[in-house]
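Predict the 3D structure for this chain.
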Amino acid sequence: MPKQTFFNLPEEKKQILIQSAEKEFSRVPLFQASISNIVKAAGIPRGSFYQYFEGKEDIYFYLLDELAKVRKDKFIAFLQKHDGDLVDAMIAMFECMLNEEDNVNFMKNAFLNMTYKVEHSFLGIYSDKESIDEFGEVSEQIDTNKLNISGEQELYHVMQIITAVTFRNFVEKFAHGLSEDQAMKSYRMEMTLLKKGIYIG
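Done. Predicted structure below.
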């Protein structure tokens, strides 16, 4: 987490620092990113950076967590729009994320250099049982009557399955340079198969 001195900054200075970090993490993955480039773009001394963050990992995961909060709100809105239909909302969310032009290179670098911690920041809002409040905010919007499940434990595991499919489709899109249409077609097919089930009878 950022240090309190970061939160005490005027909003304009905070945004300049955040945008400078986003630019660097869009250029290269976390392990290749340079604090020197971030502070140069932000127009601050290197020493000032360490007054706000412990290091580049600190600001990186702050950015991921902030993006996750925005995505959680979007996902809840999609659930409401699709009358609690989990699969339809996930398809809409996937398409929305594909079209986030401002974050596409940031996302590409994150997904192609994924660690458990990065995956958790990206997808934990959908299936993180440890974050009970956030999971509850999402799960209460899901119409469980449409799902062949019994209870919250099974809902949690359904979310795990769906997020694993979502994660893999993002990796496929970026690793193979798929167009948005190709990625969308593949994801929609897999989500439809999940929705129908794969066994007859």
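The chain has a mean pLDDT of 89.
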